[in-house]
Inverse folding.
């Protein structure tokens, strides 16, 4: 199957219904399909081979969606490239994912324009990628369970199954209008694809400012909010008397929901925030529809057809969270590691530590790895540390997330300088050159040494460092 079939079926049922509203202008389902078909014709003329891996770097919008579906239409594999990525990060992605082409907003040598501010460039990886016979649709460039870079590969069939499972919990339909404010390069499959497959209307919010966003929710009669705690915190700060009477579901995802955000949002709008757990390898795993106020800090019960269990719980019931269900990823890409070699008796071990209460509500306690969640973006400390450690004045570093009331977490770093009298100004400048802006630590602390494990000598992430004078 091909995921374009889901959209085309929806367009056949609701051709004149708005699929998107972008900058106040509706784009119907039929118009969206026409745009996709026109782009697909251009890609066919470029003679993309079946299974070609194409990096997509494009701003949020109808154009991003049309390019994604057009690539799927010609059986290409989409690899999202965040627009805030630095040239160095993009080069790393191209090499690791063996990309054969790029779609980017700026031209380069040999590029071909395929639309306004979008250029196609053919690439030549040292060795042709092998999709191992899978009908791949999507590769998300991200770390895997070992916090090493391993793209997550998903087939068309896998995405279809996880979308179906997610909607058994969310219940999205043609009467829904979804307010969209997340980055599409980070969130697409169980959101955009799901909404379009069910005939919903998606309203694109370019800039989330409390007043205008709330006005847009009511102007377009929004029914579903699916956003990060950061966005809900902004809405809760609105000082007007406006409510959102049409909203039936407000889902908080991407990172843990702070208690003050949950309470402030309910106080302001009289509506609870429903916390969800999404895993790149799995999809929408759990959703707290049943008790969002009483268990505000729970990600809820298993969603759709998923099952959740706690492995080797301690005396308090806390252990590693394992998941089983439909739409689980097909493989890690670099190096290629099929799903069967990752799962344990059919279960995916998430690396999250958590517990289940007597009624099956899941509470997350911590991470086995130190992933940082910043306003909907996952950041891996090892990646930032690798950059910091290349600076001539940095002997070693440790990066971590610090809890933030609105952003979820912010990035902070501890560095050991050599020579000790070196300053941090050049370190910050080095980060600006080699890291996307959201990955640059907000605060640096100079320390004399980082804590290490006694046997292996690895940096410990659960101990305090010795602070320099």
């Amino acid at each position: 199957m091909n995921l374009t079939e889901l959209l085309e079926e929806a367009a056949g049922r609701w051709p004149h219904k708005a699929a998107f509203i972008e900058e106040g202008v509706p784009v119907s389902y039929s118009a969206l399909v026409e745009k996709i078909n026109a782009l697909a014709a251009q890609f066919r003329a470029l003679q993309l081979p079946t299974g070609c891996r194409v990096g997509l770097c494009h701003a949020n919008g109808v154009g991003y969606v049309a390019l994604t579906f057009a690539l799927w239409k010609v059986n290409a594999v989409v690899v999202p490239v965040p627009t805030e990525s630095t040239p160095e990060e993009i080069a790393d992605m191209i090499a690791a994912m063996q990309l054969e082409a790029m779609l980017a907003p700026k031209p380069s040598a040999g590029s071909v324009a395929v639309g306004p501010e979008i250029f196609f460039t053919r690439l030549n990886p040292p060795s042709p990628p092998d999709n191992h016979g899978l009908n791949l649709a999507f590769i998300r460039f991200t770390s895997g369970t070992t916090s090493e870079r391993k793209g997550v590969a998903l087939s068309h069939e896998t995405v279809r199954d996880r979308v179906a499972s997610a909607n058994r919990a969310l219940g999205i339909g043609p009467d829904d209008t979804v307010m969209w404010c997340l980055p599409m390069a980070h969130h697409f499959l169980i959101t955009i694809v799901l909404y379009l497959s069910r005939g919903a209307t998606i309203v694109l919010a370019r800039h989330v400012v409390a007043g205008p966003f709330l006005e847009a929710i009511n102007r377009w009669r929004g029914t579903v909010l699916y956003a990060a705690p950061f966005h809900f915190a902004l809405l809760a700060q609105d000082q007007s008397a406006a409510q959102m009477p049409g909203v039936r579901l407000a889902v908080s995802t991407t990172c843990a929901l702070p208690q003050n955000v949950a309470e402030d949002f309910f106080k302001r709008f009289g509506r609870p925030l429903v916390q969800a757990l999404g895993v790149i390898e799995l999809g929408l795993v759990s959703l707290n529809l049943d008790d969002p106020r009483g268990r505000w800090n729970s990600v809820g019960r298993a969603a759709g057809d998923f099952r959740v269990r706690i492995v080797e719980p301690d005396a308090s019931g806390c252990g590693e969270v394992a998941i089983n269900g439909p739409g689980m990823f097909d493989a890690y890409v670099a190096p290629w590691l099929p799903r069967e070699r990752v799962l344990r008796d059919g279960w995916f071990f998430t690396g999250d530590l958590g517990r289940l209460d007597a009624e099956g509500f899941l509470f997350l306690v911590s991470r086995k790895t130190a992933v940082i969640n910043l306003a909907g973006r996952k950041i891996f400390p090892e990646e930032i540390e690798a950059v910091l450690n290349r600076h001539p004045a940095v002997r070693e570093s440790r990066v971590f997330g610090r809890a933030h009331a609105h952003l979820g977490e912010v990035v902070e770093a501890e560095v050991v300088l050599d020579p000790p009298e070196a300053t941090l100004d050049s370190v910050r400048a080095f980060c600006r050159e080699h890291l996307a802006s959201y990955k640059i630590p907000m605060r640096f602390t100079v320390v004399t040494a980082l804590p290490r494990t006694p046997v292996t000598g690895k940096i410990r992430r659960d101990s305090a460092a010795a602070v320099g004078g």
